Amino acid sequence: MLALGCLVLAAVTALGGRAARHSSTAGPEHPVVVAARDLAAGTALTSADLRLRSWPDELRPAGALTRSQDAVGRRVAGAVRAGEAFTAARLIGAGLTTGLARDLRAVPVQVSGAGAGLVRAGDSVDLLVSDPPDTAATASPAAHVLAESARVLAVATSSAADSDAGTLDIVVAVDRATSLKIAAVSGRALLATVRNPP
User: Of 32, 91, 135, 170, which residue is 20 to 30 A from 20 by alpha carbon distance?
Assistant: First the structure.
């Protein structure tokens, strides 16, 4: 009986090993550029931040980068976790507008306030601007909406000082009319409120 049990255990082990070998060679693999460590939004990438890792073709993200030199010197559009694959859309630059509707464009905006640090790439935000104070008026200045449900394409603090001051540089996807509204208030403090759901 003991010999029979050992025989069955050996057969199961052999079959398991064969299945594991089969699954590890199930399909072709190619190199993909991944993050070597956790990276904050806006990080300018160096070769030390990147690794090449073989990924099965069926699991490789669309547009995944395959050469480190395509990412070096560019900034990440949002926070990236160690081991996450880089695609052109994850980097600030030409690939950031890939997939946008033809009437949308990427517009950089600086937002401020205590909630600025809550904004993440992929969020949907409303952009608000306060009206200039009226010296003749006694009421508090009002604010108006510049953009509604603008998708955040990228988030990047300009510097540690800006981050500490609650200022954040973001890139949003808006139509032409909204981009003109944003340009008209250049230099004034904008506030971004995150919509739910994004």
Answer: 32
